[in-house]
Amino acid sequence: MRVLAVVHSPDAGPELFAEVLAEDGHELVEWDIAVQGSPPQDADAVLVFGGDQNVGEELQHPWLHEEYDALRGWVAGGTPVLGVCLGAQTLAHAFGAHVVKSHETLAGFYETELTDAGAADPVLGVLPHRFEAFNANGYTFAVPDDATELATGPVPQAFRLRGRRAWAVQFHPEIRRGHVLRWFEDDSTPRTPDEIAAELDVKLPAWQEHGRRLCRAFLRAARA
Fold first, then answer.
1. Which of 83, 103, 147, 208 is most buried by a 10 A CB count?
2. Range of 20's domain?
3. Cα–Cα nearest to 84, from 185, 12, 4
4. How far is CA 28 from CA 121, 130, 177, in A?
């Protein structure tokens, strides 16, 4: 398959997912939406990753409007979509849900639980019923009216648009150690790189196995 990765920031790309796509023989095309104009055509599936921008910052980042339109177009046309963090928030906004500043900035691993619908879902259902998910976000989405919540945690963690092959996860299943530590170099972040590094050393290997399974489950659903 030809898989399009929508990238908002140089340190928030496909990471581990790029490795999975290469191993399984898929073509990965990265689109930096802020600088590259219209998206490439004929994608078989779309992955939308994170970034330091937020829904509601359209004046600073007018390309967000293009992203909302692109997401609606892909979903309407039946192209499978998986949104991660900011990508989940833009998908939620594009389909009428509120995206707001969270009451706390999440940074690290947080207890997360699948809903019954999540356990039965072909993508989220490959994860354990309860697991610790890596979050790095100061904003949170509401689940769109025309969507089913698939996972819960300190904030809504995942949903699927009903009757569509479109999924969203607030957590980061694609992370690698090095690029995550760069997210926390800024003194304004709630935890230090040393604190995050210590947690990653213990929990990242198992989390990356979950990430690989989730990526492959989405690819299977996209091919179906």
1. 83
2. 2-223
3. 12
4. 25, 31, 21
Cβ contacts of residue 121 below 8 Å, gap of 6+?
150, 160, 167
Phi/psi at 3 (5° precision): -110, 125
What's the pTM? 0.96
**Cα–Cα nearest to 184, from 172, 197, 174:** 197
DSSP for 51-115 reads -S--TT-TTT-THHHHHHHHHHHHHHHT--EEEETHHHHHHHHHTT--EEEEEEEEEEEEEEEE-
Backbone angles phi, psi at 131, to 5 degrees: -160, 165
The enclosing domain of 29 has a CATH number of 3.40.50.880
What is the number of residues in the chain? 224
What are 108's strand-pairing partners?
A: 135
Q: Taking the CA of residue 72 as centre, how many other CA atoms within 13 Å lie in the half-sphere pointing to its CB? A: 9
Tokens of 50: 């994170």
CA 85 – CA 213 distance, rounded (Å): 18
Q: From residue 153, give the alpha-carbon distance in Å to each of 125, 177, 178.
A: 16, 22, 25
Q: Binning pLDDT at 50, 70 and 90, where does residue 28 land?
A: very high
Amino acid code (one letter) for 94: A
Map residue 118 onto helix, strand or coil.
Answer: helix
Residue 124: pLDDT above 90?
yes
Instruction: Please name the residue ranges forming H helices in 39-85.
Output: 63-77
Q: Which residue type is seen at 122?
A: P
Domains in the chain, number: 1
